[in-house]
Amino acid sequence: MKTERSHKLFEQAKTLMPGGVNSPVRAFVSVGREPLYISSSRGDRITDTDGNEYIDYICSWGPDILGHAHPAVIDAVKIACEKGLTYGACHEGEVILAEKIKAHFPSMELLRLVNSGTEAVMSAVRAARGCTRRDRIVKFEGCYHGHSDGLLVKGGSGQLTNSVPDSAGVPAEFTENTLLARFNDPDSVKALFERFPEDIAAVIVEPCAANMGVVPPKKFFLQALRDITKKYGALLIFDEVITGFRLSAGGAQELYGIKPDMTALGKIVGGGMPLAAYGGKREIMECVAPLGAVYQAGTLSGNPIATAAGIAQITQIEHTPDLYAELERKTAVLEEAAKKAGLNVNRCGSLMTVFFTDTQVVDYETALTANREEYARFFSYLTDNGIYAAPSQFEAMFVSYAHTDEDIVKTAEVISHYRKEN
Ligand code: KE4
Hints:
Shape: globular
Distance between the termini: 19 Å
Bound molecules: ligand KE4
CATH topology of the largest domain: Aspartate Aminotransferase, domain 2
Oligomer: single chain
Low-confidence stretches: none
CATH architecture of the largest domain: 3-Layer(aba) Sandwich
Largest sheet: 7 strands, mixed
Mean pLDDT: 97
Structural class: alpha/beta
Order of helices and strands: HEEEHHEHEHHEHEHEHEEHHHEEHHEEH
Number of domains: 2
């Protein structure tokens, strides 16, 4: 496989950006290869700058649930661009998108559009603290909620991949109010509330974890969090940056029937453009400026190009009645092939991770038993066979509506041959 052009660009990039990348997981460090430079994408395929084409299971880490460069989204963005790229003022697109989000996530009685998942979660946590007048936050080991200082504690995703679960550069005072619990272990949360009965503003959780690899919630786990937070007057925040519009049109909260007090959305909601959102109960969000004392702002928040992409994507989702059934069907084919090949798989809808450990992965501790070197070999095997998957054991495979049955079968065959050929 030719990679000269990617190599050349990477060499140049390393003289310009830390590690040559704009986000650590893209550096392919943990899989011992150089990153591929992508030049175009369409449907379930991406093409790198050396002309190699791959079946893509990163889908830009989630946004491309309909596949890359969906015509409806592209057309909406083209039309929006003709009207100007940014106004820094109110416009109709914000209203239409907010209406659509609220229709699918009725728990978001008031919401605000921002520019990234990090910003959405950071703002939701600030609003939770501001309206409860409490400082402590509970997060789960291995969950990743973006890179705001207070949440860079035992984080997943690139933090786990690059072995920086607790980032340097974050003063101890910034994380002393961040309490850690164990995913899928309600007792670990109860113990924190018994210790700090009146100090915890919120519990934040990825309702299906996808940043220590995919770890679905055990039965009653989310209900237990709902009960504990209600009992102690704390808020329950669902970080649905990945699961929102992916596990269902109403995200994990619709799928599992649990109503959080606040929700953070990202990725799919922006149609591939830099747009995210946070929101929740009216009385909470009325604490946010200009109504309340919790300050949050953004030059490009609700940007007209991004709102056009988000509206187009959600509209397309609404007009694809078999979307979630198809995502389920296609991903189940991959799961079955992996299991038949003797691989350890966790799946939640169209999110899947092959773990290289004999232990069932149910939390951070069991995720850490995975063999990263073997995952790196698996990654290389997939890449060399035209399959582009996450360059990290602690991420997810994302399946889109654009993944053809032919490409799903091809992927299943490649996965099923892995053990035999390695
Ligand atoms: P961004 O700031 O990257 O838009 O979103 C942060 C975030 C928040 N919450 C959850 C549950 C997330 O998964 C993320 C970001 N996801 C990672 C992939 N696991 C982004 C990829 C990257 O960091 O390059």
